[in-house]
Amino acid sequence: MPLEVKKRPKETSQALVRRFNRILKQSGILFRARKLQFREREKSREMKKREALRREEIKKRYKKLEKLGKI
């Protein structure tokens, strides 16, 4: 879906740019492009497991230090 804006007779270039920007915002093209640009990839099942195991290990270490009175 290409976005096409043609200059009207007696329209200034500034007005043309403003009109283009308004149409671009209304179409949502820029919003979708930015959303895709900064999206995060889904983590694999293995990576999720590793993270969960790491969190559990950190919790165990924290509890151990707490029992020893070092925290």
Outline the structure in words.
The protein is 68% helix and 0% strand. The protein has helices at 13-27, 29-37, 45-68. The longest helix has 24 residues, at 45-68. It is rod-shaped and about 80 Å long.
Biggest β-sheet description: none
Any idea what the shape is? rod-shaped
- From the alpha-carbon coordinates, what is the Rg to the nearest angstrom? 27 Å
Termini, distance in Å? 60 Å
Mean pLDDT level: 93
Could you say which structural class the secondary elements and strand pairing correspond to? mainly alpha
Low-confidence stretches: none
Oligomer: single chain
**Number of strand segments:** 0
Proportion of helical residues: 55-70%
Number of helices: 3
Order of H and E elements: HHH
Count of the separate structural domains = 2
* Strand percent estimate: under 5%
Secondary-structure blueprint:
Blueprint lengths: L12 H15 L1 H9 L7 H24 L3
Notable features of this structure?
71 residues; mainly alpha
Short account of what is shown:
The protein has 2 domains: 1-39, no CATH class; 42-71. The chain contains 3 helices and no strands.
